[in-house]
Amino acid sequence: MINVENLHKSFGQVEVLKGIDLEVASGEVVAVIGPSGSGKSTFLRCLNLLETPTGGRIIFEGEVLNAKGANINKLRQKMGMVFQNFNLFPHKTVLENLTLTPMLVKGEKKESAEQRALGLLEKVGLKERAGAYPSQLSGGQKQRVAIARALAMNPDVMLFDEPTSALDPEMVGDVLQVMKDLAREGMTMVVVTHEMGFAREVADRVVFMDKGIVQEEGTPAQVFGSPQNERTQNFLSKVL
Ligand code: ADP
Ligand code: MG
Questions:
Q1: Are 148 and 123 in contact (CB under 8 A)?
Q2: Mean pLDDT of all residues in the chain?
Q3: Is the CB of 237 under 6 A from ligand 1?
Q4: ipTM (interface predicted TM)
Q5: Which residue, judged by its Cα, is nearest atom 22 of ligand 1?
């Protein structure tokens, strides 16, 4: 579904991504782990062109995303993104957060958008908060709304950038559970995370990034059980 070839990204003189290669198959859950500053967020943001790569190719569903003339908006609609800090529309209700973009971008009718939104809110356990504003929700609830909002666009792949990092510990489980359910339903997911338990349990593949490259990748058993790269070993010894 996604094929990343020799992806480079520089900010000015600073090269943050130094040639990333990665394939993500349909239905696969890929966990991206690695130290702070290693380029994980930049990588994820390049995947849906929130950042413009300075080199290499990103092929999504057979189309080169970062080619001139690519229909970026159409392709981006197929990629849901969930951020660390939720990024909900603060002056819209929970329901409106879910219906706004499908109505605006896809021209979906209000009634059907609302019906689908309520279904998604039920799925993340927040149907009864449809009329609330984001400020009235806990962090964990906000993040579950953010996931439902991304799903409201019917994406083919979901990108998560440390979705539980800004949450109080007691909120983390509910959000991870929603993500586990999604994975079980076959959603293709790329998840940058510090939750090693989640990566081990849910991911099909774990990718360890450091210093702007993929240092090591493999199944959770391989990467956590017998890491080959010294940097991976060092990182895991600090976080496990
Ligand atoms: P991670 O998510 O792994 O912590 P990031 O992708 O956020 O890493 O950042 C990698 C490096 O890129 C950091 O040194 C960061 O300061 C730099 N960086 C990220 N975004 C920008 C930007 N917009 N402008 C300049 N430098 C950036
Ligand atoms: Mg980051």
A1: yes
A2: 97
A3: no
A4: 0.98
A5: 11
